[in-house]
Amino acid sequence: MKRVIINGANGYVASHFILELLERNYEIIALIRKNGGCSPEERMNKTLAEITGGHYRPSKNLKIYAYSLMEEDCAISPEHLKEIFSMPADYFHFAASLKYDAKSKEEIFRTNITGVENSIRMFSRHTLPGSRFFMVSTAYSCGRYNGLFKEVFYDNNEDIAGFRNYYEQSKRFAENVLRKHINENHLPGHAIRLSQVVGDSRTGVTKTDYGIFDFARRVHSLSHRHPNRTIRIKIDPEATQNLIAINTVVNHLVCMAETPELPVIVNMVSKKPVRSGYIIESLNRLLPIRLVPDNTIETADMDVYERIMSIGMSFTGAYAQNNLEFDTTNLDSISKISNMDEEAVFRMLEYFIRSLSKHKTLAPAVG
C-alpha cells in the first residue's frame, strides 16, 4: 500500500485528491491545522462529507494529524513524526494563503514562502529514501510574462510590478526555494503549477467560490438586488480564462503519484482556455441582468452599479485582459489532456448559481 502525505488536506483540490486516493486503496496522512474548538479530524471529515453530498464514511486508510505550518517540524511530536515518515511516501504541499492584497503581504509571504521552506526541512529531516516532495504552485507564477510560459524555473522578480498581485509573487519565490533545495540539497522535489481549478466537468457540480465563481456570486447578488439592469464591466470579451476541472486535476495528480520518473515542473493547465465573453454570455442567460463587456470604460464614466461591480472585481479584473500561453510538454508526458469545453463551464455556473439561489431562499429573515 503506497503512502501519500498531504498538508492543507481539507482544501478544495487536496480533499478531492484524497477521496480518489482512498478509492484506490492508498494510505493517506492528512495534516490539518488546528482551528479553535474544531478538531482536525472534525474539519477533515466535514470537508469530505460536504464534497460527497454526505456519503463519505471515515476510512481506516486515512490518518489525520494536527500540524502548524510555521513551527519547526510543523509542531508535530517526535512520536507522530516517526509514524508519519515510517515508510517512503509522496509528500504533497498544498498549504497556502490565497490572499493577494498589499496589506496581507506579510501573511502571504510567511505562509507561501516560509511555509514551503519549513515543509521541505521537515521532509528532508525525517523522510526515507524513495520519497518525493511535491509543491503545489500556480500557473500564474508567470506574473506579467509575455510569451509561452515554459515548464522550467524562472528567476525571482523582486519587483511586484512584474506580477498582478502578491500571491503570484509569493509563489514564484516559493518555486525558487524549491529549486534551491533541489540543486543544493538534492531534494527529490517537483512543482505542480495549477491554473484556475473549477467544478466537475462531467456533472457541473462546483464546490468552489474562487475566481470566476467569486465573480458570479457578486453578479448574482447585484442582479437580485437590482434586477434587469444593464451594467458595463471592464473586461475584454476576447481575453481567456484558463480553467481546469477538478476531476481532471485529480486524474493528473493520481498519474503523478503512480509514475516513478517525473519531470521537475508540470504546468497543470487546460490546453483549451475559455473566452471571457462566453462567461459573460452565460451569466446573462442565467441571471436577471445584462452585463456588457466594455474594455474602454473608465471609473469616472461608471454609474453607481458599475462602480460596485468594479470594486468587487479587484482580483478577477486583473485576469480579465489576458490570453496566457502555457507549455504542457511535461504534463502531456504523464497524463492525457482532458480539455475544458464551454458547455461544461455553463453547467458549472448553472449549478453554482442555483446553489446560491437555494441558500438565499432558505436564509432566515432578519428584522
Blueprint (SSEs and pairs):
Blueprint: E1 3-7, H1 12-23, E2 27-33, H2 40-51, E3 62-67, H3 78-84, E4 89-93, H4 105-126, E5 132-138, E6 148-149, H5 166-185, E7 189-194, E8 196-198, H6 212-225, E9 230-233, E10 240-241, E11 243-245, H7 246-258, E12 265-268, E13 274-275, H8 276-286, E14 290-293, H9 304-312, E15 325-326, H10 329-334, H11 342-362
Parallel strand pairs: 1-2, 1-4, 2-3, 4-5, 5-7, 6-15, 7-12, 8-11, 9-14
Antiparallel strand pairs: 10-13
Written overview of the protein:
The protein has 367 residues and is of the alpha/beta class. Residues 361-367 have low confidence and may be disordered. The chain folds into two domains: 3-197 and 243-268, Rossmann fold; 200-242 and 273-323 and 340-361, no CATH class. It is built from eleven helices and 15 strands. Strand 1, helix 1 (12-23) and strand 2 (27-33) form a beta-alpha-beta unit. Helix 6 (212-225) packs across helix 11. It has a seven-stranded parallel beta sheet, sandwiched between helices. A two-stranded parallel ribbon has the order 6-15.
